[in-house]
Amino acid sequence: MLRVLMYLVPLALTIYAFIDCLNTPEDEAKHLPKIAWVFIILLFWIVGPVAWLAAGKLRGGPEGGRTPSGWHRNHRTEYVAPDDNPEFLKSLAEDNKKDESLLKSWEADLRRREEELKRQEEEQGEKRDKKDSED
Questions:
Q1: How many whole angstroms separate alpha carbon 41 and alpha carbon 36?
Q2: DSSP assignments along 74-128, one per residue
Q3: 53 Cβ neighbours under 8 A, 6+ residues apart
Q4: pLDDT digit string (tens) for 12-29?
Q5: Where does residue 103 rank: exposed (0-12), middle (13-18), buried (19+ CB within 10 A)?
Q6: pTM exceeds 0.70
Q7: Alpha carbon distance 14, 76 (integer Å)
Q8: Which of 55, 68, 73, 106 could disulfide-link 23, Cβ–Cβ 3.0 to 4.6 Å?
Q9: What's the alpha-carbon Rg for the chain, to the nearest Å?
């Protein structure tokens, strides 16, 4: 178990430092450019992550409350509930018109088939009556 921890702890530290470095804005990386820190973390397996965590990043509150995902928050699409979205409601109205026309055509086809079946039944009934009267 101790042998496994000997490999897992540095690996976890390297993964954590790598992700932390990637999520850090360029202007918060100290002493070296961010890409140089990425190479140091990946090439020097134990020393690189420790150096990044100790000296590579400005620690403390970011300026203006900015976080690594600040850019994403400013460029996020604002979602609207479907019942408040006029485009969605318009698409529903168009879909309803299409569905209504389809249903009307189905009803007309159904009526035509029912009338055809009635006519066939009447013709068969007349043939039976004619055959019965002949017998």
A1: 9
A2: HTPPPP--GGG-HHHHHHHHHHHHHHHHHHHHHHHHHHHHHHHHHHHHHHHHHHH
A3: 17, 20
A4: 999 999 999 888 888 888
A5: exposed
A6: no
A7: 31
A8: 68
A9: 38
